[in-house]
Amino acid sequence: MNWHKQKSDHRGEAPDIHPGNGMLVAVEVLMVALLAFAPMAFGAVEAWSEQVVIGLVGLMVAMVLVRALIYRKSELAWSWTYLPMILFLGWAALQLVPLPAGLVKFVSPGTVSLRSELLAGVAGADAAQGNMTLSLYPHGTRHDLRMLLAIAGVFFVVLNVYQRPNAIKRLLIAIVAIGAVVIALALGQDLTGATRVYWTGPLGRGRATAGPFIHYSHFGQFVNMSIGAALGLAIVLLHKVFRRHGMSAAEIQDRIHHPQMRAVWILSAIMIAGVVSVLLSGSRGATIAIAVALGFAIFGLSRNRKLKQLGWVVVGAVVVIAATALLFEFEGITGKMESLKAGDQLAQRWQILKDLTVSWARFPVTGTGLGTHEFVFPMFDRSTVLELATHAENEYAQLLEETGVVGLGLCGLFLAMIWVNWGRAVRGGGRSVQVAAVGLGCGLVAILVNSLVDFGQHTAANACLTAVCCGLIVNLSKLGAKREDEIPVVKLTGHGWMFGRAAMLAGVMLALGWAMLAADRETRAQKAWASAKLVGAHLAQAGEIGSNQEYAELLLNAEAAVAAAPDNVTYGYQLNYLRWRSISRVQDDGAVVLTPASMAYAKRIVGELHQLRPLCPTYGAPVLLAGQLEESILKDKGRGSEAYLTAFKLSPGDPTACLLAAKVDVRQGRYDDAVKKLERYLQRSGGFSEVAELLAVEGRRPELVMDLAHDNYDWLLAAGTVLGRPDVSPALAAQANRRALALLRTRCEASDVPAELLIRLAKEDYRRKDLAGAAECYKRALLLDYGQVEWRMDLARVLAEENRIPEAMSEVRVCLRLREEYADAKVLLGELSLRPGAKLE
């Protein structure tokens, strides 16, 4: 019997008699295993879980291609969406190919100029300048490329395995079931107030509110896509139940009790629970995204004349979901929405986007390299956020930064093709399962909206699920064909079919094999580094210098990590940092004591730090540490100063780099440049004493200290302390103290002044012998925080000095009511009772 010539039955399903269908069943099992494993393994963000994901995908792709190779009639599905995906993978791979400097300069002059500028004079960098990669950090690009290969493999498998309605339904049911488990876990953690994932796993953000995920926004994206799958299944069932137009009220009532409606109620409960779990997780982006997506679902229903009557169902679902959410989390929702108005956070995000455009403008066509944001963006970061972000808070901006207009254009083309297929599926071609595209589109819109403020698609769990949803949308668009053999396939005739499929299998397996081996090396490196971190954490907790044996174990594990991943610049830097720690333990009055042997070891450390620079020219940490060792240990101030300025250029947000580079400027008389760097330092750290020391003591420019302190109370106090030294500027110190006091008084006049500021003013007034002013400030502070016993005791002492004995005794008695065994209060009460005017009780 010719499988491709059979007529489909009335439901569009051909008999499952093909001899290769056993492989398809195995692939379906593996797909469910992948979709279940990825979220449950904390989102598959660690090397070992990424390796499992790549292995499962590789096995599925191999089985599909082997089936096509063994069974000649098993054709491969074709879709034009392959084209932008293959081109994007090729573009990312091209970023890793060493190209002649002349060619790189033609396509990306910024890459050549930056490498030449940063690596000038670095030993061993000349060879890297002859042939260079477009990627500024190949290790990061290789990591993201192998994960992209896995995601593309998921898309390929879905297109080739889930072509029939029943197979599509099975996959949708699996997605919903997995999503329901994730939602139930999240709600369970919310109800129990869990602080760790799975109650015993990694720490959450103070509380574990994201189910098996570490990051709440990643959880929100996964749940939103699961809600979309549930909505798609529910619409399919509703479409079947309410298929006929013009039903009477009695018929509608009867259909509501239809057996299939039980599944609809279950799916509705899962969707409501999912939205509530997203709200409880604290992800504002995911909350807004699902609201927009549900509105889009209503639009999708309106695009199909047979589905317009179901629009009221989705509207009702939105109302029920909103009401339930408000019932469970009204205060939390309003608080989160109000926080969107907070200027600081929005301003910081806007600043990051502006900085990303500056980065892109330098590498507009090719980008900096896939997966390089963490190591390149610090050069352009002008925000005041101290934490170093591993990803941008906007997927589209990061994609433009890392892959240029070429990468963003290919990604946009792929999405446009997906939406064309979505429109074709929603309009329908006779298969009831096609209406599931409405729900899948809802989930896709949710992640597209959320990606404006998050990087959830860098998580393997979310990326795999997105690939599945996109693949299902493409297949749903094809189901309008009258016969299954009309679905576009790759047909290789004659002898070419075997060679073509064999070549395809070999190529794909080589690519996925490379990805698997690379993931294995990264897994071994991460495991070794985790062991090193455990030893380091033990040393930190013990607060000890550490023995030679402990440091030997620490360095052995760190060296194993570097051996497994020699192109990982962070491991190389951390290894040399630990080596320096191991030889700098012996100190005399704060100064490191080095023997001739350890001095030679320090020179070796500096050399290896510089050898790391060609791996990632834009990574500032090795440059900064090398500069510190060159200046303070090797006594080479010239090389140290040069390293400090380079480190600041690479990491202008690093407080240490800012301060050390400012010191160089002060030494060389560039005070304006020094002030700009110190302003950055103060934005990131706030430690003003070091700034005052540098400008007033080393630079002999105390007036610049006053300019920088301006109207900041804490900075003015620090300035007064440093400037008050006899050999600096006592006059300016007095001015700083007066300005600080005036500023404090002004702030304390406000009605919403914090109690802590009132206490500061009270102590200052007491120091200046203004007892009445001090007492008034203490009283105002205690009105804001009644239970502060220590403050009340200070008030009692002030009142006693002012000879207001009855008031002082009253305050002491309040202290004893709040703390019955307060010895100091009992002593003071006894002393006051002997004073004239005391009222005894």
Notes on the protein architecture:
A hairpin with a 2-residue loop joins strand 5 (587-588) and strand 6. Helix 28 runs antiparallel to helix 29 (713-723), helix 29 runs antiparallel to helix 30 and helix 34 (805-818) packs antiparallel against helix 35 (823-833). The chain is 70% helix and 1% strand. The termini are far apart. It is an all-alpha fold and 841 residues long. The longest helix has 47 residues, at 496-542. The protein has 35 helices and six strands. The radius of gyration is 33 Å and the shape is globular. The protein has a two-stranded antiparallel sheet. The model is unreliable at 1-12, 339-343, 482-488 and 491-495 (pLDDT under 50).
Q: What is the topological layout?
A:
Layout: H1 21-40, H2 47-70, E1 76-77, H3 82-94, E2 99-100, H4 101-107, H5 109-119, H6 125-130, E3 131-132, H7 138-161, H8 165-192, H9 216-241, H10 249-256, H11 260-281, H12 284-302, H13 311-339, H14 343-362, H15 373-376, H16 395-427, H17 436-450, H18 460-478, E4 489-490, H19 496-542, H20 548-564, H21 569-583, E5 587-588, E6 591-592, H22 596-611, H23 621-632, H24 637-650, H25 655-667, H26 671-684, H27 688-698, H28 702-709, H29 713-723, H30 730-748, H31 755-767, H32 771-784, H33 789-801, H34 805-818, H35 823-833
Antiparallel strand pairs: 1-4, 2-3, 5-6
Helix pairs in contact: 1-2, 1-8, 1-18, 2-7, 2-19, 3-7, 3-16, 4-5, 7-18, 7-19, 8-9, 8-11, 9-11, 9-12, 9-17, 9-18, 11-13, 12-13, 12-17, 14-16, 16-17, 16-18, 17-18, 19-20, 20-21, 21-22, 22-23, 23-24, 24-25, 25-26, 25-27, 27-28, 27-29, 28-29, 29-30, 30-31, 31-32, 32-33, 33-34, 34-35
